[in-house]
Amino acid sequence: MKKMLTNARNLRALLFAGCLIGASACKKTDLIVLPEPNVVNPITDFEITRDPNDIFKYTFKNKSEKFKKLEWRFGDDTLKTDSNPTHRYFTTGKYLMNLTTISATGHRSKKQIDINIHPDSVMRITTQKLPGNQIRYGLVAKAPIGSVTWTFNEVSPAVTTTEANPVRTYEPGTFNTFTVKVTTVAGSTVSITSNNATAEGVLQDITQLREGYTISAENTYGANENSTKLLDGSVETKLTMGGRDGRWFTYPLQVSLNYTVAQTVKMYCIGNANDLPNRDVKSWSVQGSNDGITWEILDQRVMAKTFFAQMTDKGATTDAQRYKKLFFYAIADPKPFFKYRLSIESNWGEAAVHISEFRIYR
Fold first, then answer.
1. What is the spatial distance between Cα 336 and Cα 290, in angstroms, rounded to a whole number?
2. pLDDT in tens, 27-44
3. PKD domain: from which residue to which, for each copy (predicted)?
4. Which of 63, 71, 101, 159 fits a disulfide with 45 by CB distance 3.0 to 4.6 angstroms?
5. Residue-wise pLDDT tens digits, 52-90
6. CA–CA separation, 191 vs 208, rounded Å?
7. CA nearest neighbour of 89 among 102, 72, 76, 108
8. pLDDT greater than 60 at residue 22
């Protein structure tokens, strides 16, 4: 019996070893070695040419290599697959366009670029000053104009016209709003809204374009009311100089704005502050210079009433309506200068003078 059990164990061992040998033999026999795949990686490249007569129209030249298929996407939900497409954009905006190339082995490559069609790059608004505070409008566009619509908001209800060169009359010293919309012959549209229409034309605030500024005296006792507040673009802050406790300065108080390129300023504004009307500036001049040594007076004023009283005369009945307002003045003979200076000569008798804003417009 013992001998029979031993023989059975030996037989099982032989069978197990035979299976291992057989499995090993089968594995070696069935092993298949595949060749390395032939990968083709495409190279994507293109050139863009804008139509010189129509800023909305572009031609794309494919310069890609090792590709089988092309996919052009223009950032406006448009897809094209031809080799050298042309494409028209129908509105202004920023478009992320890209070209994807696909090789014979299905591998992909992509190149993308921003196309930015800004309204100011499509058309420019022109103005011609006419007698009687009138302005004649015009347009210069980088595409053939099909139709134009002007909407003027200085009156209520607003006035809409399709004239090519409308004429408007503006009250001196006021800023007014208008919108002009152009549709090109091919159907593309562009719209510009401006809040800076005046009797001097459509102006631009260049105060913040300055290279720097200087001031003849500084408020060193109150950082919240120093010279930076005069040029920060907000009537909610102010420059205050002097006071009853001996913090004196000498008139004229002068602040000069410096530019790297000569600017032709057509208008400026002064803002009053929020307390004691007798601290308002009473007399001043605006001057221009190219060397900082010789200054030419461009405009000079002596007020008959405080700014506070002027607003009351216009119907203001609350402090909120009288304080923190801008007062605009035109320069009769604009000339280009590298430097502009506000020279404050006096206030209304208070020990301190304050002013919330000084801005210049070209």
1. 9
2. 445 667 666 678 999 999
3. 71-117
4. 63
5. 999 999 999 999 999 999 999 999 999 999 999 999 999
6. 25
7. 76
8. no
pLDDT tens, position by position, 153-177: 999 999 999 999 999 999 988 899 9
Farthest-apart Cα atoms in the chain, separation: 138
Dist. CA 93–CA 76, nearest whole Å = 10
- Does one domain contain both 314 and 223? yes
CA distances in angstroms from 315 to 280, 323, 325, listed in the order given: 19, 13, 14
Range of the domain at 277: 207-361
Q: 362, exposed or middle or buried, with CB in 10 Å at 0-12, 13-18, 19+?
A: middle
182 and 229 in a single domain? The answer is no
Token digits of residue 125: 């608004």
CATH code assigned at 356 = 2.60.120.260
- Percentage of the chain beyond pLDDT 90 is 83
Q: Do 227 and 357 fall within a single domain?
A: yes
Query: In total, how many domains does the chain have?
Result: 3
Q: What pTM value is reported for the model?
A: 0.73
Instruction: Count the neighbouring beta carbons within 10 Å of the beta carbon of residue 32.
Output: 4
Residue 356 and residue 273 share a domain = yes
